[in-house]
Amino acid sequence: MNKLVYVIGIDLGGTNLKVGAVSSDGKILFRLSVSSDIKDGKDATIKRILHSIEEARFNVRGLRLAGIGFGFPGLISPNGVISNAPNLPDWEGASLKNELADKLSAPLFFDNDANLFALGEGWLGVAKDAKSFCCLTLGTGVGGGIVLDGNLWHGADGMAAEIGHIIVEPDGVSCMCGGRGCLEMYASASALVRMAKEGVGDGSSVPPSADAIAQLARSGDPYYRGIFNKLARYLGIGITDLVNLLNIDMIVIGGGLSQSSDLFLESARKEMRKRAFKVPADRVRVVPAQLGDDAGIVGAAFLALNLEHQIKEDQRNPT
Ligand SMILES: [Zn+2]
After folding, report:
1. Buried-state track 38-58, b at ≥16 Cβ within 10 A, e below 16
2. Model's pTM, two decimal places?
3. From the CA of 307, how far away is ligand 1's center (Å)?
4. Do the bridges between strand 5-12 and strand 16-23 make them parallel or antiparallel, or are there none, so unpaired?
């Protein structure tokens, strides 16, 4: 009798490491989330990843592990070589495949975390009926993933979908990418806090987190509502570019800040409708993500399932 097949999806973030065992029909059989402790360095985090995979395997013992998908917060090749990792600088140049392959018996697949977020929402989330869509993750920074006709768009060098670094203010705030006025500097959680501080002198009275600012805005505080309106305007300008460029079915807004989407999403839609061409603006739906914290592991699982399947097909039908 064939054993039931599952895959493991890994979502490594700057704060949390999430690991899930997912069945081939998309059921999350087991999930865990631990601190990624990146400050202890790469080797400590790799140990933690291996330990978490073991824990997942133990919890679904009896089933057959078909592959492991890995979402990394930076630029990573399909072979697991990391070439850019702004939040994990000591990982640059490392090969995750080399570090993990001899300790794991299953095939390994790698992609950027925001790309996998998009795959997750496309498989089981809000975008499951959309053929072409963009995902934006509004967190500490702004991540992006672009799915066109059902496939991730990686670009010639794997650098596509840096939606956080499209320019929305030509002479705006300097960004760590070297540019100025990037969307990330106006539509992320850290941008929200910065913009709130900018408006009040020394800024010491401003709450230090986007959640706290959202609470004040929701209670009707006009100053903080205004900060959200400012963020919404820039987000609307950014998504106008995506709508005019790609004529996509959907834009999915995820990340921690999307929990406050009641404070900015409708204004961002209005800004986009005011600026974009009418036909693509009428088509596109701008909606909050649906899978919450699970999107990354679900997308990583989808990557592993799909690519494992493709490899088998290729072996069956060699060209
Ligand atoms: Zn930038």
Report:
1. beeebeebbebbeebbeebbe
2. 0.93
3. 31
4. antiparallel
